């Protein structure tokens, strides 16, 4: 059984291990777009022989002429002109991990690759964007003649071997994306295993896309000579920045593991890891409209949730937020303030207050109060006009002309505390209401603070029903609000205003107004010294009418002379959905050296709120711009050879994963594809085996998991071109949250290929009503003396299985996850232990939130 803590640990461990990017300096970058000049530049950087340049240019011509595939997943949104086809962070491959550039080294350290190399791998290769930056094979295997290096290095060291086999399995004109790869390929693995040599433990390659809007086009070529065997696996802010936590603002350097912070989803999530480093490079300073206090200092590569300004003279009409690196933001672009939409409403709340003193023993009293709209309005009055005297008296002070409000407070105090306050006439037209109640005084002091500067709202109050919070605003504005209608040189300033000297209360009032779909800005009025700052909360523009409805239109219309109804004013900000978008007022950049900066990792969302603005953890490259991964893998298994190729694919959900993988299996050779697809936006991948020699075998297993916004179009192909060959294709897919999976496969048997045996099984599991699964099998059988089988099932989680597991103490979430793991067991049992554990972790993370 998996408890909540272990789920948190799982998420923390996985996101830390895999879900991040680093800021690096590019040594080579061809820029966006593809042309013959770009292809020549790639070849020039690599110092390639002339035949490879000719090959690339021919491939480019084929790519340009071939139409985009219209079958399968929707690829219409790929814009080839926006993709960068070659990026490298280093101009040489390292001989050891220590020789790598610091940012790249840190990336692979955090992935655990050096440790994996020591513990359970025969060889390791690591690719960062376009280039392989490290590769090494165990010395004992190297002495046996095993070659494991980048394909670029192989082209230099083993040119005849590469030229003999390169593009013989996947020809340049095979499909549009194979042609694209052939034109722009960079990196990938080259493996050669000599005759009779068995590599007992896996060779592994790691591929990382670290740059936004980038294409990765590695080319892998594996040659297993006669009788050989091989298994190949793919596999910050400056100090002082205020962070929004569940318990209020906290400086970034004071954030601790376990703190609960607000994220871009409007929910609170747990911090699971801290980062602190020296930054050398771009530092951005950002000021924005809506809060005159804030200046955000942020490293240039840190993503900020934003919307690009379309036209300077107009507000945007579309508000689709994207993650944009701070250095790419411009003045007038919009950045996002989160709106906390969570509602935890209770009609009755229990409070615990310590009573006693004045010669009475202290005791802890628990009591219940109906926290309805009236109570919230009373809190508003208290924030504006209330105070505590000697811990025994709850007082309110009004102008004698505010008789309506005085009577309202009297009635409220009697309703909630059972007694009417005393009324006193004060100096200069003031009226004081005094409630002699230790219980009331200590309750308000405990829950809402005492002293104008120390007043703040508790968290339960911030998460209550918006209709109650509207009453708080009404009471608060009645006490400390006014209406401004002043003429300035650039026009009239028309706004509602609430004043306070409590910075926390100013921010909380703004946040409550956001929950009421009303934007408010915060201005600071400095007097003689910072400790005397006064904060003004302004509501203006097209939010005037909304605020009028909140506080009482009859009152506001009297004050404003109906200007609200007569003028159509436009706010600089825009509220849409769960965000308020505010324009950048000023942005500057500077180059800094050895500046201490801070960052941290957050479960699930990898984002947090600093200076009121949503930012992404810069160690997680979930960029809004789509990236393209278009690899080609060629495997050649000569007579009697055995090759197993395992892929655990977990790209971020902004990656188009369009891959061509194909193997030639000669006489008595055995090829296995184990292919798991968990991540990516769209995957189209169909590992294939051409069985060219008698007795050749192929086993292909395709696993897919599709969540919200994902389409996993995957499968396998077996092409029987010799007698007595055998193939098995197993496809397992799960869809949840509106995700779509498609099995697309082919079994082909040439005429005369007698004795062929092939079996295809497709199983799909749907976890909800929104998700979709399709099966598109092709059978091309040109010979009668063969045995071909095909089975396909589509179903939902078995209710009897769920009932049985839940009757044994598992929650529905845990029971469903266990069923899913059992569904994929045929795949996991084929993996080495370390990878089976990792795969199960991935599935468990994907399953979070699938129930309820």
Main beta sheet, described?
A: 10 strands, mixed
Gross geometry: elongated
Helix fraction bin: 25-40%
Radius of gyration: 33 Å
What does the model show?
The chain is of the alpha/beta class and 852 residues long. Helices cover 26% and strands 37% of the residues. It is built from 22 helices and 48 strands. The protein has a ten-stranded mixed beta sheet. α2 runs antiparallel to α3 (50-65), α19 (799-807) crosses α20 and α20 (812-823) packs across α22 (833-847). The longest helix has 16 residues, at 50-65. It is elongated and about 110 Å long. The two termini are 18 Å apart. Residues 1-26, 93-97, 103-136, 207-212, 527-531, 562-567 and 619-624 have low confidence and may be disordered.
Walk me through the topology.
Elements: H1 4-18, E1 28-29, H2 36-46, H3 50-65, E2 87-88, H4 102-111, H5 113-120, E3 123-128, E4 131-137, H6 139-143, E5 147-150, H7 151-157, H8 159-165, H9 176-184, E6 189-193, E7 203-208, E8 215-216, E9 219-224, E10 229-234, E11 237-238, E12 242-245, E13 248-251, E14 260-262, E15 268-288, E16 296-299, E17 303-307, E18 322-325, E19 334-338, E20 348-357, E21 360-370, H10 373-385, E22 386-389, E23 393-399, H11 403-417, E24 422-426, E25 430-436, H12 438-448, H13 459-462, H14 466-480, E26 481-488, E27 491-500, H15 503-515, E28 521-525, E29 534-540, H16 544-551, H17 553-560, H18 563-566, E30 574-576, E31 579-602, E32 607-610, E33 613-616, E34 627-629, E35 632-637, E36 642-649, E37 655-665, E38 670-677, E39 682-685, E40 688-691, E41 697-706, E42 711-714, E43 717-720, E44 726-735, E45 740-749, E46 757-766, E47 772-781, E48 787-796, H19 799-807, H20 812-823, H21 825-828, H22 833-847
Parallel strand pairs: 3-7, 6-9, 7-10, 8-34, 9-35, 10-36, 34-37, 35-37, 36-38, 37-39, 37-40, 38-41, 39-42, 40-43, 41-44, 42-45, 43-45, 44-46, 45-47, 46-48
Antiparallel strand pairs: 1-2, 3-4, 5-6, 11-31, 12-13, 14-15, 15-16, 15-31, 17-18, 17-19, 19-31, 20-21, 22-23, 23-25, 24-25, 26-27, 27-29, 28-29, 30-31, 32-33
Helix pairs in contact: 1-22, 2-3, 3-9, 7-8, 10-11, 10-14, 14-15, 16-17, 19-20, 20-22
């Amino acid at each position: 059984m998996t408890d909540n803590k272990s789920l948190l640990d799982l998420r923390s461990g996985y996101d830390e291990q895999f879900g991040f990017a680093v800021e690096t300096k590019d040594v080579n970058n061809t820029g966006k777009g593809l042309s013959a000049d770009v292809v020549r530049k790639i070849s020039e950087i690599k110092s390639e022989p002339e035949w490879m340049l000719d090959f690339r240019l021919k491939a480019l011509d084929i790519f340009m002429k071939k139409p985009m595939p219209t079958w399968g997943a929707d690829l219409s949104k790929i814009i080839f002109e926006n993709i960068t086809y070659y990026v490298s962070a280093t101009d040489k491959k390292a001989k050891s991990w220590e020789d790598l550039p610091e940012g790249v080294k840190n990336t692979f350290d955090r992935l655990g690759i050096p440790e994996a190399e020591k513990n359970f791998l025969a060889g390791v290769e690591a690719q960062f964007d376009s280039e392989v930056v490290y590769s090494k094979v165990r010395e004992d295997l190297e002495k046996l003649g095993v070659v494991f290096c980048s394909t670029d290095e192989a082209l230099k060291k083993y040119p005849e071997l590469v030229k003999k086999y390169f593009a013989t399995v996947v020809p340049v004109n095979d499909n549009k994306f194979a042609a694209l790869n052939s034109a722009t390929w960079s990196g990938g693995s080259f493996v050669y295993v000599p005759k009779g040599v068995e590599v007992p433990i896996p060779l592994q390659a790691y591929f990382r896309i670290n740059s936004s809007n980038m294409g990765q086009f590695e080319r892998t070529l594996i040659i297993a000579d006669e009788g050989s065997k091989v298994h190949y696996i793919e596999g910050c802010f400056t100090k002082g920045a205020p962070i929004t936590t569940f318990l209020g603002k906290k400086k970034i350097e004071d954030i601790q593991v376990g703190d609960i912070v607000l994220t871009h989803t409007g929910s609170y999530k747990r911090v699971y890891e801290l980062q602190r480093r020296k930054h050398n490079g771009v530092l951005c300073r950002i000021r924005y409209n809506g809060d005159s206090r804030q200046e955000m200092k942020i490293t240039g590569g840190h993503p900020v949730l934003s919307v690009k300004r379309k036209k300077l003279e107009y507000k945007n009409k579309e508000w689709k937020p994207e993650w944009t690196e701070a250095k790419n933001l411009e003045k007038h672009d919009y950045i996002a303030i989160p709106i906390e939409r969570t509602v935890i409403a209770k009609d009755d709340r229990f409070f615990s207050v310590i009573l006693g003193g004045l010669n009475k023993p202290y005791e802890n009293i628990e009591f219940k109060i109906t926290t309805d709209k009236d109570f919230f309005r009373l809190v508003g009055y208290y924030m504006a006009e209330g105070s505590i005297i000697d811990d025994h008296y709850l007082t309110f002070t009004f102008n004698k002309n505010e008789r309506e409000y005085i009577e309202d407070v009297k009635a409220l105090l009697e309703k909630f505390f059972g007694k009417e306050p005393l009324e006193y006439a004060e100096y200069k037209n003031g009226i004081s209401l005094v409630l002699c109640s230790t219980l009331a005084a200590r309750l308000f002091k405990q829950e809402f603070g005492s002293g104008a500067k120390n007043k703040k709202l508790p968290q339960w109050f911030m998460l209550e029903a918006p209709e109650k919070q509207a009453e708080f605003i009404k009471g608060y504005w009645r006490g400390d609000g006014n209406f401004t209608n002043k003429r300035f040189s650039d026009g009239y300033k028309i706004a509602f205003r609430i004043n306070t000297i409590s910075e926390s209360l100013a921010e909380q009032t703004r946040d409550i107004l956001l929950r009421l779909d009303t934007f408010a800005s915060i201005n600071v009025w400095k007097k003689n010294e910072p400790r005397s700052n006064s904060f003004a909360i302004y509501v203006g523009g097209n939010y005037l009418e909304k605020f009028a409805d909140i506080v009482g239109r009859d009152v506001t219309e009297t004050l404003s002379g109906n200007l609200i109804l007569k003028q159509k004013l436009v706010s600089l900000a825009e509220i849409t959905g769960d965000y308020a978008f505010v324009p950048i007022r000023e942005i500057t950049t500077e180059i800094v050296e050895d500046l201490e900066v801070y960052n941290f990792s957050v479960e699930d969302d990898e984002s947090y709120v600093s200076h009121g603005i949503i930012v992404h953890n810069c160690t997680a490259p979930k960029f809004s711009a789509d990236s393209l991964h278009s690899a080609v893998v060629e495997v050649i298994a000569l007579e009697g050879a055995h090759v197993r190729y395992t892929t655990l694919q977990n790209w971020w959900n902004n990656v188009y994963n369009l891959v061509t993988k194909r193997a030639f299996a000669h006489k008595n050779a055995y090829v296995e594809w184990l292919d798991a697809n968990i991540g990516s936006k769209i995957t189209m991948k169909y590992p294939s085996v051409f069985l060219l020699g008698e007795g050749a075998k192929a086993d292909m297993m395709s696993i897919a998991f599709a969540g919200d916004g994902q389409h996993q179009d995957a499968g396998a192909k077996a092409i029987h071109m010799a007698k007595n060959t055998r193939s098995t294709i197993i496809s397992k897919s799960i869809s949840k949250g509106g995700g779509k999976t498609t099995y697309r496969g082919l079994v082909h048997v040439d005429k005369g290929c007698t004795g062929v045996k092939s079996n295809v099984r497709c199983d799909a599991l749907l976890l909800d009503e929104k998700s979709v699964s399709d099966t598109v099998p092709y059978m091309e059988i040109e010979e009668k003396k063969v045995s071909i089988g095909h089975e396909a099932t589509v179903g939902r989680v078995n209710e009897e299985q769920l009932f049985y597991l839940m009757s044994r103490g598992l929650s529905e979430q845990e029971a469903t996850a266990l069923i899913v793991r059992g569904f994929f067991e045929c795949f996991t049992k084929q993996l080495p232990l370390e990878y089976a554990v990792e795969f199960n972790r991935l599935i468990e993370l994907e399953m979070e939130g699938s129930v309820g």
